[in-house]
Specification:
The radius of gyration is 16 Å and the shape is globular. The protein has one domain (35-161): Up-down Bundle (AhpD-like), CATH 1.20.1290.10. It contains eight helices and no strands. It is mostly helical.
């Protein structure tokens, strides 16, 4: 059966605009480092099997100067010395919220609570929520993985020309 792919963007412009606004608000955060958001978006996308989003967020992180070695290590962050305690807390919370097996484990929450202010923790949780929505859309409609990197690079070219 043929899926919609990225054409789903044109099928509900009102809701897509609202979701983009939500994403822009997360990306415009004044309390969260966008490199941390890149790692969170990448980890959730890996967990959800969203190839488009994995490619997209790797490309975005690279444009922000993230090291390839760290991007390769995101899936094994618990066993890597490449991440700070704060980043590990964010990635653990990302896994807990993305998998949401009935509740976020006390240990994961406590680790995040110790690493982030209340405002940061709330914004981090919103970031995890918004990427999960995008992942579910792109997985459901089978947006081709290869288009993720292409999309980021095209957007980057537009911004640098402006």
């Amino acid at each position: 059966m043929e899926r919609l792919g990225r054409t789903y963007h044109g099928k509900s412009p009102r809701l897509l605009a609202a979701l983009r606004g939500f994403s822009d608000a997360v990306r415009g955060s004044e309390v969260l480092d966008q490199k941390l958001v890149d790692l969170v978006f990448l980890r959730a996308s890996q967990l959800n099997g969203c190839g488009f989003c994995v490619e997209m967020h790797v490309a975005e992180a690279q444009l922000r100067g993230e090291q390839d070695e760290r991007l390769h290590a995101v899936a094994a962050f618990r066993h890597s010395g490449r991440f700070t305690a704060r980043e590990k807390a964010a990635l653990a919370l990302t896994e807990a919220v993305t998998r949401l097996d009935g509740a976020v484990a006390d240990d994961d929450y406590a680790q995040a609570r110790a690493a982030f202010t209340d405002e940061e923790l709330v914004e981090l949780t919103f970031a995890i929520g918004v990427i999960n929505v995008w992942n579910r859309l792109n997985v459901t409609f089978e947006t081709p993985a290869e288009q993720g990197r292409e999309f980021v690079l095209a957007e980057h070219r537009k911004r640098t020309r402006a």
